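[agent] plan:
  1. take the single chain provided in the ticket
  2. run structure prediction with default settings
  3. attach structure tokens to the ticket
  4. add a short note for the reviewer (M.T.)
[agent] executing step 1
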Amino acid sequence: MDREQIFGILREHRGKVLGMLCGLIFGLMTAFLGFGKALFIAFCVTAGYFIGRRWDGRQGFQDLLDRLFRGR
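[agent] step 2 finished; step 3 output follows
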């Protein structure tokens, strides 16, 4: 199997590969840090992703805070 085939498989199954990597990382964090700490880190990463996604969408930070804390 050459490099192009591997990259083709990775492109075709990007979601599965990303999901497996996330599961692996969470499993390792749980083994080394414990479930509570690993869950807290996963929550912070998820929150950071959603904040960054909104920021990339060119929506203002104040609009983001209003939506988070006023429940719109």
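[agent] step 4 note for reviewer: The CA atoms of residues 7 and 13 lie 10 Å apart.
[agent] ticket updated
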